[in-house]
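pipeline: protein-struct stage 2 | run 1193 | Cytochrome bd-I ubiquinol oxidase subunit 2 apoprotein
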Amino acid sequence: MDLTLILAGVIVFGVGAYVILDGFDLGVGILFPFIPDDAMRDTAINSIAPVWDGNETWLILGGAVLFAAFPVAYAVALSAFYIPVMLLLFALIFRGVAFEFRFKSRRSKHWWSRAFAGGSTLAAFAQGLLLGGVLEGVVAVPGPPGSGIAFEFAGGRFDWLTPFSVITGLGVVGGYALLGATWLNMKTEGGLRDWSRQAARRALFVSLFALATVSVYTPLKFDDIAQRWFADMHWLSLSPVPLATAVVAFSLYRELKAGSHYPPFFYAIALFLLGYIGIGISLWPHILPPALTVWNSAAPPQSQAFVLVALAVTLPMVLIYTVYAYWVFRGKVQPGAGYTH
């Protein structure tokens, strides 16, 4: 049994779960300033109130497993992406504070609404910067002999800030807006649902532009990715991924145009998962290309076994309470349904 592959799979699952689950509630925040009136904004925020904080559990899980099971990658990544990581964390904290204070305030409610939207947008943009930085690669070199450091970061403080990472940042903002709009389309009725359906169509085009940009740019710039997709007829065996993406995007647009309630949200999830699979195909087995792979950045087997035992206890609990929360709060959110402590 290869513990490294199992733990890498746990990180892939945890990051995917975070992107989907926290993605739609960040998307609601991104859309917040554009929702037509305050009553609709109240309904929108009430649709995510029971689940938003639980969704962020998956970010903690992914970070904790990366720290414990792949400490070399964790150390290099934190050195390379310190600024966007801090932007992400402060944005999530600020967003959480704004979420709670908005329900308690009266005179300053509009300011907390802006803070909620700003924190959500910045968090999404920071995640896109991180994605772009990882795809462009990180300069990591072996540590000094006898230091016990396998690899260390040897790049610049702002290597992550490039035109490409800005595009991926905007793409993640658009993608999360798509998830948020399709969530509101599924969870609400009346004017808010009609508005969210229009917003979802606009966000779909932004998401597809960013997806196309990444798909074209990465093989043109990086020979390893080009070889992975196109050498030795690989494109033939991998072609189901872009073909499925095109089918899902068309189906999503069609369902939105038809006024469907539930299918658009699940098509949006499928679109994200297909993009996630494409990134995985491009990067595997690297965690931080070009130097760090899942094997040369992994912890010793004893540490991996300890992490796996902890996950055997905690992961089922997280899954159970996540499924239970969504089951309890299933169905449409009614206007005026309050969120109180």
